[in-house]
Design brief:
The structure holds two protein chains of two kinds. Chain A contains 14 helices and 17 strands. By secondary structure, chain A is an alpha/beta fold. In chain A, the strands form five sheets. Chain A has a seven-stranded mixed sheet with strand order 4-10-9-8-7-5-6, with helices on both faces. In chain A, α2 packs antiparallel against α10, α11 runs parallel beside α14 and α12 crosses α14. Chain B starts with a helix and ends with a helix. Chain B is built from six helices and three strands; from the N terminus they run ααβββαααα. Chain B is α+β, with helices and mostly antiparallel strands. Classes of the chains: A alpha/beta, B alpha+beta.
Chain lengths: 415, 144
């Protein structure tokens, strides 16, 4: 029996964080909820819920149209979210933040409006073997339309990217290097700095999928110097149905609209239509205004705690979780990356991931079971599904201990 | 243990999932059908040999959870040496009784299969139990 690792101390600023999330007070199947499915979606603090309620109760109106007070207020609140996101990512200008429905739509937007006009048959798009389907399928669709070729860089058995192989696949015909920052399925943190630098040297455009890193660590798009970065708000304590695309202004300027409609035009006539400047060119129709207001409140919440503090604590907590799970009878980790963030995948020889998920659920513990929208990655490990525990700032070692204890009962039942 | 969980993982079901019957690849088959649950990745392939409208042999291969595994094992026992159309009728009745809250699975005359009733308390797991039976129906449709 391995000695139990020492639990990380909970910083003062996080001790009360749990109280900020009303859902964490509820029971599931008669047990207090232990929420370890944060990579799928995080919970929302009261301040975000209140901001959305406030908007619908007192400020509801459409934006960018109408001169009445409500519309003016709603427009300011929505645009404020863009300003805050730009600061959060250290973008050069707030016009570099495009609101979308989430990371998936952001990638599709780049595929349609940026990359499609640049590629022709034989050109290459580079990704890795650990991508989420959202960073695979839009490129496959583009390849189908254009005859471009999708190149996939391998990973090592421990779940690390074979970075040398990734870089060596950057060739004269590579038009875009897209890579997930943190793997949603196995928690690997990829060396995006090195990848972006190498891509720049070779004149290759870059896209970073930050859906699983933006809530866990500081991101500075100017320091990274990536061309595009995508994210989803609901994974960062904010509403579902909204997310964003960071794009360098020069790139956004070069792009055609993604969808046509109201709010994205400068002038419409039957003889021809002209479009607004970025970011509005890519935001057709009435947007998710309440979502934007939720983003604003969510950023305030994260900043009130501090991203460095969150990152330091979560790094210790996920290490604690990995160490505890590793020494749990019958449990095998899938992926033991040298640098991990947020998530741990595991399987049990005796019980399938769904059975694990069902039994944990009866004990109030929420984990994800399945392929995590990463079927090629699952295949790489020779499995069809894993159970995944993923943390956020409100989790603590007691959550991990409860998980480990329950897995003991799974092992008893099936072992 | 939670009583609903106990009803889900009955001994009969666990026995079938630990030691599934007829879990092998069958060669020279009259029909086979591969079915995947895209939500979770469970994958099953059902193989049928048929003689004079009777299933003479049924086997399966699967990467799946205990419920799907047990259900597939029970299916192969239920349909072997039985009329194909009767097998399809049985599959329809089973799928309906698992999906419809008001219908009891107890009317199906197979005690092992009655142990699948526990999934009715776990809506997200019902498809695990029905997947093999859908695969069987798929295989039969290829025979027609």
């Amino acid at each position: 029996m391995t000695d139990r690792p020492t639990p990380p101390p909970i910083p003062e600023a996080l001790k009360k964080a749990r109280d900020d999330f009303p859902i964490l007070k509820r029971e599931v199947n008669g047990k207090p909820l232990i929420y370890l499915d944060n990579a799928a979606s995080t919970q929302k603090p009261q301040s975000v819920i209140d901001a959305i309620t406030q908007y619908y109760a007192y400020e509801n109106s459409n934006i960018h149209r109408g001169v009445h007070l409500l519309s003016t207020e709603a427009t300011a609140a929505y645009e404020n979210a863009r300003t805050k996101l730009a600061a959060y990512l250290n973008a050069n200008d707030e016009s570099e933040i495009v609101f979308t429905r989430g990371a998936t739509e952001s990638i599709n937007l780049v595929a349609h409006s940026f990359l499609a006009p640049l590629v022709s048959a034989g050109d290459e798009i580079l990704i890795s073997h650990m991508e989420h389907h959202a960073n695979i399928v839009p490129w496959q669709l583009l390849c189908e339309r254009t005859g471009a070729v999708l190149k996939v860089a391998p990973i090592f058995d421990n779940g690390d990217l074979d970075t040398d192989a990734y870089l060596s696949l950057m060739g004269p015909r590579t038009k875009l290097a897209a890579i997930v920052h943190v793997s949603n399925a196995i928690g690997t943190v990829n060396p995006i700095e090195r990848i972006i630098e190498a891509a720049k040297d070779r004149g290759i455009h870059t896209l970073i999928d930050s859906a699983q890193s933006i809530q866990h660590m500081k991101l500075d798009v100017q320091a990274l110097d990536c061309d595009f970065l995508v994210f989803s708000a609901h994974k960062m304590f904010m509403p579902t149905g909204i997310g964003g695309l960071y794009g360098k202004r020069a790139k956004l300027d070069s792009m055609r609209p993604y969808q046509g409609g109201g709010d994205m035009i400068a002038h419409v006539s039957f003889d021809g239509t002209t479009y607004k400047e970025p970011p509005y060119r890519f935001e057709a129709g009435t947007p998710h205004i309440a979502g934007g207001i939720g983003i604003s409140a969510g950023i305030d919440y994260i900043e009130s705690i501090g991203r460095d503090l969150i990152h330091d604590y979560e790094t210790q907590l996920i290490d604690y979780a990995a160490n505890r799970l590793k020494s749990t009878a019958g449990v095998r980790l899938i992926g033991e990356p040298s640098h991990r963030s947020g998530a741990i995948s595991f399987v049990m020889d005796s019980a399938h991931a769904h059975d694990i998920g069902t039994i944990l659920d009866t004990e109030g513990i929420a984990v994800r079971s399945g392929h995590h929208c990463c079927e090629p990655l699952m295949k790489r490990f020779g499995i069809s599904a894993t159970a995944r525990a993923s943390i956020a700032l409100y989790n603590n070692h007691e959550d991990i201990d409860a998980l480990v204890e329950s897995l003991g009962r799974v092992h008893q039942l099936f072992g | 243990m939670n009583p609903e969980l106990k009803a889900l993982y009955r001994d009969t079901l666990l026995k079938h999932s630990r030691e599934p019957k007829n879990k092998s690849v069958l060669k020279d088959v009259d029909a086979y059908f591969e079915l995947k649950n895209p939500l979770c990745g469970d994958l099953i392939t059902l193989y049928l040999k048929v003689s004079q409208k009777m299933v003479s042999k049924a086997t399966f291969e699967a990467q799946c959870c205990s419920i799907c595994m047990a259900s597939a094992s029970m299916l192969t026992e239920q349909i072997t040496q039985s009329d194909i159309e009767e097998g399809v009728d049985f599959a329809d009745s089973l799928i309906e009784s698992l999906l419809q809250p008001g219908i009891s699975i107890a009317t199906l005359e197979n005690e092992d299969i009655q142990s699948l009733a526990g999934v009715k308390s776990f809506p997200s797991r019902i498809r695990c139990a029905t997947l093999p039976w859908e695969a069987f129906k798929g295989a039969v449709s290829r025979l027609r």
